[in-house]
Design goal:
The protein contains 20 helices and no strands. The radius of gyration is 22 Å and the shape is globular. Helix 4 packs across helix 15 and helix 6 (120-130) packs across helix 11. Helix content is 73%, strand content 0%. It has 417 residues and is mainly alpha-helical. InterPro entries: Bact_Transport_Assoc, DUF418.
């Protein structure tokens, strides 16, 4: 999420732009309906062929993968911003920590006032930890990333597998009546009650209603996320740091090496998630099939897919061009586009706007995604032709430096950030 400067690295901006667009493809579902349906599709707003097609497409191509890519880019941008700060004679920590503190404020505002799915607060908090590693060479960054990701994925796989086995035992022919009753109660809880739906819709009537609901139900969620998926976020950021330092994410490698990464990494992801989608659809989203494929064993494939996507994007956009420039502009204003997408979602779904919350199916909600992508592509470049930063990038920069940053472009480019 770095801002515009004369020495931008084009390919980093392009990857970031594609990542922020991809993220909205899944986020829009979480904005449009109750949170339970985001994590278990049959919970609400699901049933038609279109819903299944859109779930499968996102499951195979997008879900978890573009968030991982975005997190990797955040790590790369962290190094980039620190290096530019050092070049300007600033201490690294004086550059980094004010940025993370301001980002945390934006993330908390995003979470408490607009949407439960904020990731900025997690990035800010984990980013404060990631700073410890930024001086490490590529080899040790990758080792640290592997340790962090293993610490995040392996316990989830072991405990999740054990939990599924326990549930299956309760469904076995020899299970007791008590076990069966407990299982039925658990399965019933996967779908929200009428009361829960009513309360959830009421919480989206207005921004104050959303704030009150959040404060009552999960006021510390942004901070607790560090203990949840924060270790995964750290691992992904470290991969990004290594990817930047090694030249992988800056497009410095030979094309053959990118092909050697893109083909097997993306291929492995498509095979795994393609088989998973088939099995889940065949089982009609049985929890015993859905959750292992979707939430227990899929985690390690997300960074694999993300790295493959990064390599593929670098191969597709080796130099500037009309499409590359548009995508790069989206990446340069990724902070604004990320928050702006939520603002659009708020207008679409909250009661003070169009009031569509809980009124659409999964597939119908997704149909807004291409329109939001188009808005990102249309506004970002013309804006940056006139202004140095996106609106929220400018605010982030000004607040973290505690000075009013110039916004309008000048004919003579200023010094690097």
């Amino acid at each position: 999420m770095a801002t515009t400067s004369p020495d931008r690295i084009l390919v980093l901006d392009i990857i970031r732009g594609i990542a922020v667009m991809g993220i909205f493809s899944v986020n829009v579902v979480g904005m449009a309906m109750i949170e339970q349906a985001y994590f278990y599709p049959p919970g609400y707003g699901f049933g038609s062929l279109g819903d299944r097609i859109m779930w499968a497409a996102n499951f195979i191509l997008v879900d978890g993968k573009f968030r991982s890519l975005f997190s990797i880019l955040f790590g790369a941008s962290t190094i980039l911003v620190i290096e530019r700060g050092i070049a300007a004679g600033k201490d690294p920590w004086r550059v980094h920590y004010p940025r993370m503190a301001v980002l945390l404020l934006f993330g908390l505002a995003h979470f408490y006032f607009l949407w439960w799915g904020d990731i900025l607060a997690n990035y800010a908090l984990v980013g404060m930890i990631a700073f410890i590693f930024w001086r490490l060479p590529v080899k040790w960054l990758l080792v640290a990333a592997a340790i962090a990701l293993s610490a995040g994925y392996l316990p989830n796989m072991v405990m999740g597998g054990q939990q599924i086995a326990q549930y299956q035992a309760k469904a076995a022919p020899g299970a007791s009546d008590e076990q069966r009753a407990a299982l039925q109660e658990l399965l019933a809880g996967l779908k929200p009650s009428e009361e829960a739906l009513a309360n959830d819709k009421a919480a989206h009537a207005s921004i104050p209603a959303h704030f009150d609901s959040i404060m009552e139900a999960q006021p510390l969620r942004p901070f607790m996320s560090v203990f949840g998926y924060g270790i995964e976020t750290l691992g992904l950021m470290l991969i990004g740091m290594a990817g930047y330092k090694s030249g992988f994410l800056t497009g410095s490698w030979k094309r053959r090496r990118y092909i050697e990464i893109a083909v097997p990494f993306i291929g492995a992801s498509l095979i795994y998630f393609g088989i998973g989608a088939r099995e889940v659809l065949r089982a009609d989203f049985s929890p015993f099939i859905f959750f292992p494929w979707n939430q227990i064993y899929s985690g390690p494939l997300h960074p694999v897919a993300a790295i493959g996507y990064a390599a593929l994007i670098i191969l597709i956009f080796p130099k500037r061009g009309a499409i590359a420039d548009r995508l790069a502009a989206v990446g340069r204003t990724a902070f604004t586009n990320y928050l702006g997408a939520t603002i659009i979602g708020t207008i679409l779904f909250f009661g003070f706007g169009l009031g569509l919350y809980g009124q659409l199916s999964r597939g119908q909600a997704w149909l807004f995604a291409p329109g939001v992508w188009l808005i990102m592509l249309l506004w970002s470049k013309p804006w940056l032709d006139r202004y140095r930063y996106g609106p929220f990038e400018w605010a982030w920069r000004s607040l973290s430096r505690w000075q009013w940053e110039p916004m309008l472009r000048t004919k003579t480019p200023g010094p690097p950030a």
